């Protein structure tokens, strides 16, 4: 059967390539079989398609943006079949006519009940504990004859093969091949539970019809079932046509670990010369147990690998985000400035910055994106970029905030919004104009210890555009200061209670230490937060910005 690779580019163009060889490489470099130098989302050597024993695999070559199969990032060589969607950069690829021994076919769940005739039922515990003779017709197989040399060889081979490092998708085909070879079956299918549903993961043959009663007994009772002769079984005698392919003998066993059943293996044969026997049932029961443990081990390994990749990506995102925040406060004559940010996760949604406009003008901004983690961090990055473009000394804080709101409202998801406090201070005169978009009220502390909460506020950003914002103004004399903060400070919870740190405690603290430097004030707040939470990880991002007139 001829095989083709269909390639769809970002511009909608399509390309169809006959797969006559055993290897096709793809990337930006002209050294690849398929070169797309203009797709900057591709790496120079991005991925390769490889044929092994009439099966196609895709392998990522350590690309920057990864390779995905059916929207899942692959971390190792991955088996693909006809219809699978491969995404590399802006390209979408699919194989047409890809086949091989694991030809996929539909499974029809048949209503035939489990008969009482030529049927043997076994359990893993019984198989492992037994040492007596094989049961007769209609009896349980919990006490079979010892494994034959051939069966022992099959188990040894299975152990050797399964011990090798293989990705999960290759394991399914291997386990099915081992099962079919061990009992000399003609066909087989391996299924595992995915989101509570049995999903075929490996096929050898097609047109499977499996009794629901057999399936349910295997899954619910951890039972291994052998129907030695379908035509002699009471339940199936009148329903042979439902089994298709003239099937005469059937085995179904659970893929079970010590804790649970994760799927099943079903094999059958049309040969009357070699019907499955009790020893075949016992052999497949043990083999499936070993295979299930190996599957669970590999699943855990893949989860850990994906977590490592995710953690690495988060670390890189945190480095990028950290580079967007100030490394240190600028030196501004007439002002003592300090800021602090700590994300409760690897990345966060809080943002602060100093905007040096010249002519003694400096902008101070602190924002908080609703939510935590990567979504909030992405919105924070967008906010930071817009502030860089829109903020200017000749544009009042209210006009700047209104412009930000108009842009953010058109792109902000429904469940997201941003609170923001923005002020511009004249470091020489101490004049300060400010605008609050739904953020915590800044604390104004006078040199004599009097204080004021700057409570005047407009709506949050990203919800209702065009409502308008208003400027407010005040003057900072020598020794006065203004403290901006996110709700991660005031809503920090005392360990073992529901008591919050609160605005009153924060206000009293900054008033008490008002004669110290901006950096020292932030340190006092951090120390108090640590004492309050007893060092417990914060539930929200913590950000502060302090400006003292000197």
UniProtKB/TrEMBL annotation:
<dbReference type="InterPro" id="IPR029016">
    <property type="entry name" value="GAF-like_dom_sf"/>
</dbReference>
<feature type="domain" description="PPM-type phosphatase">
    <location>
        <begin position="334"/>
        <end position="549"/>
    </location>
</feature>
<dbReference type="Pfam" id="PF00498">
    <property type="entry name" value="FHA"/>
</dbReference>
<dbReference type="InterPro" id="IPR036457">
    <property type="entry name" value="PPM-type-like_dom_sf"/>
</dbReference>
<dbReference type="GO" id="GO:0016791">
    <property type="term" value="F:phosphatase activity"/>
</dbReference>
<dbReference type="InterPro" id="IPR000253">
    <property type="entry name" value="FHA_dom"/>
</dbReference>
<feature type="domain" description="FHA">
    <location>
        <begin position="24"/>
        <end position="74"/>
    </location>
</feature>
<protein>
    <submittedName>
        <fullName>SpoIIE family protein phosphatase</fullName>
    </submittedName>
</protein>
<dbReference type="InterPro" id="IPR052016">
    <property type="entry name" value="Bact_Sigma-Reg"/>
</dbReference>
<dbReference type="InterPro" id="IPR001932">
    <property type="entry name" value="PPM-type_phosphatase-like_dom"/>
</dbReference>
<dbReference type="InterPro" id="IPR008984">
    <property type="entry name" value="SMAD_FHA_dom_sf"/>
</dbReference>
<dbReference type="Pfam" id="PF07228">
    <property type="entry name" value="SpoIIE"/>
</dbReference>
<dbReference type="InterPro" id="IPR003018">
    <property type="entry name" value="GAF"/>
</dbReference>
<keyword id="KW-0378">Hydrolase</keyword>
<dbReference type="Pfam" id="PF01590">
    <property type="entry name" value="GAF"/>
</dbReference>
